[in-house]
Structure formats: structure tokens, C-alpha cells
Design a protein that fits this description.
single chain; 683 residues; alpha+beta; Glycosyltransferase; Beta-galactosidase, Chain A, domain 5; five-stranded antiparallel sheet; 18 helices; 26 strands; 24% strand
């Protein structure tokens, strides 16, 4: 964190103390007039006109409080004050509960105190400040959701409530001073900003595709309250919200997308982590809408603001309370996505998003190279992949929050497109380390990525090794090539602790896959979904066993039908060192499946894949070195022939006011030591 930001934060607290002591504070001011939380005199006048035609959304009590603040409606004010004075958290919950949803969810309560200030009596103000200040103090003292958990939805909710209370009650009680310091110093400066630069860099919060949207919007409530009450803009103190906007754009489906069991299609987001809503097909709701609207306004003079507005114009998500408040007549000119790169990478979570183009019929791929960190809602899904085409899911993880599937639950590795050893995936807890991305390169024709997952499978220091550790895995390195527009190649270098360990490649289909045996090229499984089909072929090894599992065959009470998919398990046994080479294609329903011809040498395993109008040939080196193999593409038309080596290095990406930027192409290198090429996994 730079010195000017730190000085500003500390000055805020020191000045607050000076105000309480009756001293003048010239360099930092909280407005004395009310309402001041998210409202300015100019905004109040503009929003008055919206009341008649656009009802205030969200919580009923908050809507009435805001209506009173804008129009002076006495009936609405009386109802809001009644609700405000009733808000409380039981003493038992404050003292003994791990956390409080009732407190975290009630975002508008401290704002309502400001909005209804003129309606409250002196006694009511005193009662509320004592009660709510005591609640804030108790919740900030809890370890769960505390400063050491910056990715948690409780952390962000507590920070928002604490900061807004400090602003709303500024100068009235020492409890507000303590709350203000907890929000802006303990959490924002010391925890949030480092988190944004580390585990969340690139815009991904580790709570998953349901909870991440809460966390982004929670901070924007506080940011807007600070901006209107003090003029301070904390969004300018981090680049993260620019990154969040682009991660949201890239992680959203290109068009209205179909979900299992529903007639109406809608824009969806790639799921990850605990996601118990939307039957496993995350919607773009008011939380995302309000966040993107706030970002569009914040960066209205930058590319990211224009792109955030384009997102809102295309997706047309519903509006929440925050969005209603900031929709005060300001306009942002949208800019099409076509000038953006087709690929985006979030380094913190190591999530990679790729697409064939920006059209509605595009193919889009998500690679979960790493683990989204910082929260408690993560799954054992490092190395997983998901793919859709023309508004239909080709392969998708089976998501949920503890949802039970046949043979696993939503958190288990079997619910994702991963590799398991004797049925076990990554470490349940206390992993030896995070997955390590070894290579990432974006070219005109393809994207190449490699991740070493080994440490994520092992938990050598766990106090419960029998529960957490995967004793069968000695090495797991997964490599991807996405050949645009429609083919994903997956290559696994696996080493088990004995030859008897079963290694299983897990792949999900939203529809039941059909088996075909092709005389020339081997076995394939095809899943037809609408006008598209997903074709899967295990090119290497040939001596594998297949098993199709209907994940909906569970006993007892089931979740909604949309959660359940079909799981294809491809298993190999008998060698300690195993390589999986799989080709997955997203095609039109009646297109010919790719023809895959195995190409094996002493040092490489590869395939020649032929499609109408083009072919490509890839060779993966069995060992790891400065180069991981070669790739050659022959295509009809403008592209022609291209070839290149697959270097074990990472192409950098950055986000700034001008958009998304990939670094220069990597110079491919071969190892200087030939022995490196023969190095076996785990050696």
C-alpha cells in the first residue's frame, strides 16, 4: 500500500477522535448535513423524480427509509423508524455464535439511521446507537469473518456495516470511532488491499460464483457511503474493481443460455465453489448488476467503464437498492467488446477464460488451473475445466452446497472434471501447497496452459492425514491446449505410489452421453444438447475402462433436477506412470467428430486431429523441461499453416484504464540439457 493511502486512512481515524474531543479538523471532513450516506443534495433532487416511475427495490424497511429521506413521506418514515428500532441481535448470538447472518444481511440498517435521522427522537437515537454499536463491537470481535479471512462473505459484510455505522454516527459515540477504525484500517488497509493484490488478483474471490457477488457489492456499499459522506474514493486505492469487471464479462455466457429443466434461457456465469442457487446455473442478478453499474460510473472515462456499461446493456440484469440509488441521471457511453482480447486470466485464483469470438454462437472455455482462495466455500476442483457452445453447456461441473450426487457430493473432486487416484481427489484440508501454474501462452490459433497439481493432492502435515491426504498420488501435472474455435486437448502426466492405483479421468455431460466405437480411431462418447454436441475421445491410453454414472441416482430427498448430470469415468490401472491424452470437441449437432490419430515416440505422446478444413498435430513431452512439446496447425483459408513450441513459461496479463493487455508472445525454447527431456514425473 502506498504512503498517501496509508496517511489518508490514519488521518480519518485521528480526525474522528479530534471531532469527538471538540477540535477542528481541516484535512478530513464528514459532512454534517443529512442525509449523507449515499445521498447528496444533488442526488436527492434527481432521485425524487424516479420515485413515481421506478419503485425502490430491495428490503421493504430500507425502501421506506429511503423514500422518507427523498420525499419526507411521514408514513414511510414512521414505518422505517419502527423497523429500525426493532432491529437487534440476541445476546446469546453476540456472545456465543460463530457468526451472524441477520447482522451481515442487514446492509441498510446503519444507513437507515442516517436516512431517518430527522424522524428519530433524541431518545431513539441514543437507544439505537448504544444497541447497534454494541452489536458492531461484538461482531468485529469474532474470529470467523475477522481480519484474517478477507475472502469471506462475513468479513466483507462486517466491514461494510462497521464503516457505514462509523459514518452515520460520526461524532456521536466512541463506538462509531472504533467501528470506523476496524473498517478502514484493520480491514481495508491491512487486509483487503493485500488480498486484492494477492489471492484475489484478477477479480476472482474465493467464495464461489454465488458468494463472490455478495462480497463485491458489500464493498461498493461502503465505497459509495464514503464517497458521498467524505469525498474519499477507496475504489481509486486498488485496481481490483477494474479486474472484477473484466472477470465478470469473461465469466458470463455470450448469450441467453439454457439450463437443465427450464424453458427460458438466461445469461449465466461459469459456476465454481458452493453454489446452491439457480440449480447449479448461476444467474446474473441484482448483486452483479449493481456492482457493474457502480464500476461503470466510477470509471466512466475509461475503457473499463464503457465495457461495464456494454455488459449492462447486453445482459439487462435486474436492479437492486444500491443500483437504484446510484442511477441518478449520470450516463456512461458503452463500447463493444470486440476490441478486447478473447482470453482473460485471473492470476490469484489461476482461472483462465477463453472464447472463440464475441458472437452469441461462440464457444467458451473456463480452465480452473488453481484454487480460488480466501473464503470457506471452495471445492476440490483445481485442474477442472468447463465448456459451452452456442448457448448450450458441453461440459460443466456439478455444483451445489453440500448437494449429494451418486458417489460424491458437490465439494468432492468427482463432481468436477478432474483426475482421481483410487477414487480420491485433492486434499480435503491442509494441502501441502497451492497448484503451481507452469505455463501459459496465448497465440492466434490456440491457448496453452500447464499446472502442477501435486501439492494440492497431498496433506503431509495434516493432523488428520487419513481424512485429508491422498496417499496414492505422487505427481499430477495437467496440460491444456484450446484450439479455437472448438477443440480442447487435455494431457495428464500422472505418477501413483504403486502400479495398482486406479487413475480416473473425470468428465461431465449435462445430458446422457452415447457410446460409439469407431473402427479406425477408437471409442468416443457424444452428448447432444440442443443444436450442439460434445464429443469426447481418450486417445491415450487405449486399455481403459469406461463407466457412465447418473449422478441423480441418490437415495432420500433430492435437490432440483437441474443440479444432476452424467459423469463419465475413464480409468487406467497397471502402471505407476500414466499419461492421459483426451480430445474434447464442441460442435454443431450433425458435424463430423474429429478424427484422432495417436502419435507416440520414446519421448512424446501426441495426436494428429483432423477436421473438415483443418488438421493439427500436437506432441507433448513425457517429462518436464523448458519446452513441453510442439504444436502445428494446418488450416484452409486465411490462417494457413502455423507451428510453434510449447514453452514452460507464463505470458503476463495486466488490466488498466485502457483495458486488458497480454504481454508479448513467449519465445519458445528447448532445454539445453537433453537429459531434462527424459526426466520422469516425480523424479
Amino acid at each position: 500500500m502506498n504512503r498517501s493511502v496509508r496517511v489518508a486512512v490514519v488521518a480519518a481515524v485521528l480526525v474522528f477522535a479530534a471531532v469527538l474531543a471538540g477540535e477542528e479538523a481541516a484535512d478530513f471532513n464528514v459532512r454534517k448535513d443529512r442525509p449523507r450516506i449515499m445521498l447528496t443534495p444533488e442526488r436527492v433532487e434527481r432521485l425524487k423524480d424516479n420515485l413515481a416511475t421506478h419503485p425502490i427495490p430491495g428490503d421493504e424497511a430500507a425502501a421506506k427509509a429511503l423514500k422518507y429521506a427523498l420525499s419526507g413521506d411521514e408514513e414511510a418514515g414512521t414505518a422505517a423508524v419502527e423497523a429500525l428500532m426493532k432491529f437487534d441481535i440476541p445476546e446469546e448470538e453476540l456472545k456465543k455464535a460463530v457468526a451472524s447472518d441477520a447482522y451481515r444481511w442487514a446492509a441498510a440498517v446503519p444507513a437507515m439511521y442516517d436516512w431517518c435521522y430527522g424522524k428519530l427522537t433524541e431518545e431513539q437515537r441514543k437507544q439505537f446507537l448504544e444497541r447497534y454499536g454494541r452489536i458492531v463491537e461484538a461482531m468485529n470481535g469474532k474470529s470467523w469473518g475477522g481480519p484474517s479471512m478477507p475472502g469471506s462473505n462475513y468479513y466483507f459484510g462486517y466491514m461494510r456495516n462497521s464503516g457505514i455505522f462509523g459514518l452515520a454516527a460520526f461524532g456521536e459515540t466512541p463506538l462509531a470511532e472504533a467501528a470506523f477504525e476496524d473498517a478502514l484500517v484493520t480491514r481495508w488497509e491491512k487486509s483487503s488491499l493485500p488480498y486484492y493484490e494477492g489471492a484475489a488478483k484478477g477479480g476472482v474471490i474465493g467464495e464461489g460464483s454465488q458468494y463472490d457477488r455478495y462480497n463485491a457489492q458489500y464493498v461498493l456499499w461502503l465505497a459509495e457511503a464514503l464517497r458521498t459522506a467524505t469525498g474519499r474514493d477507496i475504489l481509486k486505492e486498488t485496481n481490483w474493481f477494474r479486474e472484477f469487471a473484466y472477470q465478470t464479462i469473461y465469466s458470463t455466457t455470450p448469450t441467453l443460455t439454457h439450463a437443465k429443466g427450464l424453458d427460458d434461457a438466461y445469461f449465466q456465469r461459469f459456476p465454481f465453489g458452493d453454489c446452491e442457487k439457480w440449480d447449479g446455473h448461476p444467474d446474473v442478478d441484482e448483486y452483479i448488476a449493481d456492482a457493474m453499474r457502480a464500476i461503470a460510473l466510477e470509471y466512466a472515462d475509461e475503457k473499463v467503464g464503457a465495457h461495464a456499461q456494454q455488459y449492462l446493456d447486453e445482459v439487462e440484469p435486474p436492479q437492486g437498492l444500491l443500483g437504484w440509488i446510484i442511477n441518478d441521471g449520470r450516463m456512461v457511453e458503452a463500447e463493444p467488446f470486440t476490441d478486447l482480447s478473447l482470453d482473460y486470466y485471473a492470476p490469484g485464483a489461476a482461472y483462465l477464460y477463453m472464447r472463440s469470438d464475441w458472437e452469441e454462437s461462440a464457444t467458451e472455455v473456463m480452465l480452473q488451473l488453481g484454487t480460488a482462495k480466501g473464503g470457506s466455500h471452495y471445492h476440490l476442483d483445481a485442474g477442472s475445466f468447463q465448456m459451452l457452445r452456442a448457448a448450450r453447456w458441453m461440459t460443466k461441473e456439478s455444483t451445489g452446497y453440500g448437494t449429494q450426487f451418486a458417489g460424491c457430493n458437490a465439494r468432492d473432486a468427482l463432481a468436477h472434471n478432474t483426475v482421481v487416484f483410487n477414487g480420491r481427489g485433492q486434499a480435503n484440508a491442509y494441502p501441502d501447497g497451492d497448484p503451481e501454474v507452469l505455463a501459459l501462452q496465448v497465440t492466434r490459433d490456440y491457448v496453452h496452459a500447464v499446472v502442477d497439481l501435486t501439492k494440492a493432492y497431498r496433506a503431509g502435515k495434516s493432523p488428520h492425514k487419513d481424512r485429508d491426504d491422498n496417499p496414492y498420488c505422487a505427481r499430477a501435472v495437467r496440460e491444456f491446449i484450446y484450439l479455437k474455435p472448438d477443440v480442447l486437448v487435455v494431457f495428464d502426466r500422472l505418477l501413483s505410489t504403486s502400479p495398482d492405483v486406479e487413475k480416473t479421468f473425470v468428465m461431465h455431460f449435462p445430458v446422457e452421453p452415447k457410446y460409439q466405437k469407431l473402427e479406425t480411431f477408437g471409442d468416443i462418447y457424444t452428448g447432444e444438447n440442443g443444436g450442439s454436441q460434445c464429443v469426447f475421445q481418450m486417445v491415450y491410453p487405449k486399455d481403459v475402462k469406461y463407466k457412465v454414472v447418473d449422478e441423480g441416482k441418490v437415495e432420500g430427498k433430492k435437490a432440483a433436477d437441474g443440479f444432476y448430470q452424467w459423469r463419465l469415468e475413464t480409468t487406467h490401472k497397471g502402471t505407476q506412470e500414466t499419461y492421459f491424452l483426451a480430445v474434447i470437441a464442441a460442435l454443431e449437432r450433425f458435424d463430423l467428430e474429429p478424427r484422432c490419430e495417436l502419435k507416440e515416440t520414446e519421448e512424446t505422446i501426441g495426436a494428429k486431429v483432423s477436421q473438415p478444413g483443418r488438421s493439427f498435430e500436437v506432441h507433448f513431452r513425457k517429462g518436464l523441461g523448458e519446452s513441453l512439446g510442439t504444436m502445428a496447425v494446418d488450416a484452409a483459408g486465411a490462417y494457413g499453416h502455423s507451428d510453434g513450441k510449447l514453452p514452460a513459461r507464463i505470458q503476463e496479463i495486466s488490466v488498466d484504464k485502457d483495458g486488458v493487455h497480454w504481454g508479448p508472445p513467449l519465445e519458445p525454447l528447448f532445454p539445453t540439457d537433453p537429459a531434462t527431456l527424459r526426466k520422469k514425473p516425480g523424479a
